Amino acid sequence: MKTRLPHPPAAQGPRPGLRYRLARRRRAMAAHALHGTCYGIGTGVAGLVFWWIEQTL
After folding, report:
1. Cα separations (Å) of 29 from 23, 33, 36?
2. What is the value of pTM for the model shown?
3. How many CB atoms lie within 10 A of CB 32?
């Protein structure tokens, strides 16, 4: 019968799964922020175009 080796010591710091979930959330928040920024810029440009059209009529 083989003797079993003891388990290695637990790693310090956050678990790898937790690190992955945090990175995924960070990417999702960045994507939402970019989407909101682009939406706001597009809305502002459309508003300026309509304002410019009203001023020229």
Report:
1. 10, 6, 10
2. 0.59
3. 10
Encode pLDDT of 23-50 as tens digits.
999 999 999 999 999 999 999 999 999 9
Q: Which amino acid is at 19?
A: R
Residue type, 40: G
The full set of domain ranges for the chain reads: 16-57
Q: Token digits for 33?
A: 């922020």
Instruction: Print the SS3 string covering 19-53.
Output: HHHHHHHHHHHHHHHHHHHHHHHHHHHHHHHHHHH
Q: How far is CA 53 from CA 11, 34, 43, 47, 49, in A?
A: 64, 29, 15, 10, 6
